[in-house]
Amino acid sequence: MRRQAADGRTAAAGSSRNKRLDPFSLPLRFEASDPAADARVRSIELTRERVVVRRSVRGMLMAVNLPVASYLGVALRIDPAAGTMAVVLEHRDGALSLPLYRAQDGADIVAEWQSWARVLRLPLLIAGADGRLREPFARIGALHIGIAVARRRRRSAVRARRPAILLRRRAGASLTGAAVHRGEREMIARN
Q: Which is deepest, 28, 142, 160, 181, by most CB within 10 Å?
């Protein structure tokens, strides 16, 4: 099964809005350009767990079956020369990296980038000008590290059992150091 354009040609992955790959409709089958392949095209099957890349090189048919976990992450690549932005499923071997989305403007690129990373359960990556990949946010495992935010009080079942006045009260002032008058008879001052 091939993904085809309206005029019968095979559509490149993420080449325009009507040929967009939807991350929420996996499994997908599509074709992408491959300069090393005989027909300059490779066929890709993408599921949540596996990626199968099929191509023909010098007449030899080959299929590479990889788990999605073997990929580094979903990268955002910017090509200033072509004026395009792309979302790419990045692998250590550049020949196995897969284009998922490409756009001329950056209107939906961040939403696509985050959607693909969430669906494939891979980290977000940004490709620098030198081509090196880095993570946009610091994290420990799957936990993103950030500045602690003050906890906001919410309405809950516990709220009905606790009087709100207790939360508004301030602690009393300390009496240490206050003047203590012992042995005096009257507490009211008179003239």
A: 28
